[in-house]
Every structure is written in structure tokens, then in C-alpha cells.
Amino acid sequence: MIENKIAFIGPGVMAEAMIAGLLHKKLADAKNIIASGPREERGKELAKKYGIKVSTDNASAIHEADVVVLSVKPQRLTEVMTGLKGIRSDALVLSIIAGATIKKIGTSLKHKAIVRSMPNTPGQIGEGITVWTASKEVTGEQLEMARSILGALGEEISVEDEDYLDMATALSGTGPAYVFLFTEALIDAGVHMGFPRRIAEQLVLQTIKGSASFYEGAARHPATLRNQVTSPGGTSAEALYYLEKAGFRTAISRAVWAAYQRSLELGKERPGHVDTDEEK
């Protein structure tokens, strides 16, 4: 990997996370990384921080790249791909764009070696999970390159069925938003009872972290663990009764399904449409 030239088209948050991870793990050399985007000030920021090359000309950035990483917002993809002429025929195109299918990318770029992936926000600190798949034209060496690049964000899971990517977008890709909302609700409940916000935040954060670690180590079904802390007629039983009565499970299931449907829609989005709620 260290000698491969990597071009990031779209120098956003996830692109920066990948760059930072690659450099931190010594999987790439800063002199072989270039990030391209329309905002010159963003490029200067990344160049100063990581010592990489930057550009505002996408066509120039991809000229010698072994790997071209597509990391723009979903609604800008069609526009951006029209300007990506000259990708080397032996290069790997790696996309982290929600809803963008391998077929759509391949047809627009007239390129065959494509990896489609869906990382998530914790990748910014190397604790993410990325689901990815590859077109049949991707070579064994390119598969390992993709695994290394995506592994810089945390864990990665390779799948053969591309349909899993839209599912992953709804579950793990969007998942941090559900966790943050739940966290916020718990903190606000603590403040409502009378806790100072800083104490409520500390209690909730450690509870969530500890519960996740306990679940991971216990290797048991979450229902089993929940039953262990739910005494008959106790406080947990009372709280869980109200959550079930309010349709907690159904709300989560419907939210994930809605995100899944939106991911499918993004793959069919008409050119020029902009959804300001979607961010990459």
C-alpha cells in the first residue's frame, strides 16, 4: 500500500478520517495522497495538517492515482462523475457514497474495477465499521488495497451481495444518529429529574459504554442480559413497560426501514435534486 497513489475526490469528514488512519497506521505516504475539492481553504487545511497534496481540479488529481476514492455527498455524485475523465484503466475506484450502486458508478465513469462501501461516523476515531463489496473485475491485489484503506477506519466486513450495502447504510451507517438521539434523550431525562447536566452526561455516557462492552464480552443474546437486570415489579420492569407501551421497538424498526428506503432512493436520485438533510 505504501507506494500506491490515492486520490480522494471530496475532502470531507470521512475522507479526512481515512487519510488520518492511513497515515497513522503507516499504510500510505503523505506524498502519495491527494485530496481534491472545490474549496481551496479546505485543501489548505488538510495540506497543513497531514502534509498531503491538494487540488481543486478533480481531473488532474486522478491522473496518476492507483486508487480513486469517491467521497462526495450523494447528491453531487452525478455532477462530479461527469468531470472525472482519465481514470487509469488499471486503477481501483472506491466509493463511500450512500446509495450509489456499482452499476451507476461503473456506467458513469466507464470503469469496471469498483468497490462500494458504507463506513460510519466512529470511523473518525478509528472505531467505525464498514461494509463493502466489489465488482468481479477487482483484482486480488485491489481487494487487499480496499481492505487496508477501509480498515483504517476501524473494522470492515466484506460481503458478496450488494443489496447488503443499502441495509448497512440504514443500520450501521445511520446507526450513530440513533445512538446519539437515545443518548440525548437519557441525558435530558436526567436533567428533568434534577441532575446537573454534566453529571447526567457522565452517568449516561459511561452506562452506554459499559453496557456495550458488557454485551460484547458476555456473548449472550441482549434479551438475556436485559432480563438479568429486570427484577419482577422493579424499576427496570416499570421503565421497560412504558417503553414497550410507547412502541419503542416499532419506532426503531420503522426508522431503520425508512433509512433503508431512502438509501435506495438516493441510488435513483434525479440530477440536480438536493436534500439538505443528507450529509456525508
Number of strands: 8
Spans with pLDDT under 50 lasting ≥5 residues? 270-280
Overall average residue pLDDT:
91
Can you identify the CATH superfamily of the largest domain? NAD(P)-binding Rossmann-like Domain
The span between the termini is 25 Å
**How many separate helices?**
12
Structural class: alpha/beta
Largest sheet: 8 strands, mixed
CATH architecture of the largest domain: 3-Layer(aba) Sandwich
Order of helices and strands: EHEHEHEHEHEEHEHHHHHH
Globally, the shape reads elongated
Number of individual domains: 2
Side-by-side strand order of the widest sheet: 3-2-1-4-5-6-7-8
Architecture overview:
The chain has 280 residues and is α/β, with parallel strands linked by helices. It folds into two domains: 6-160, NAD(P)-binding Rossmann-like Domain (Rossmann fold); 175-266, ProC C-terminal domain-like fold (Orthogonal Bundle), CATH 1.10.3730.10. 51% of the residues lie in helices and 13% in strands. The chain has twelve helices and eight strands. The chain has helices at 13-24, 40-50, 58-61, 77-82, 102-109, 140-151, 163-173, 175-193, 197-218, 222-228, 235-245, 248-266, and strands spanning 6-9, 33-36, 53-55, 67-70, 92-95, 114-118, 128-134, 154-158. An eight-stranded mixed β-sheet has the order 3-2-1-4-5-6-7-8, sandwiched between helices. Strand 2 (33-36), helix 2 (40-50) and strand 3 form a beta-alpha-beta unit. Helix 7 (163-173) crosses helix 12 (248-266). The longest helix is centred in the last third of the chain and has 22 residues, at 197-218. The chain is elongated. The two termini are 25 Å apart.
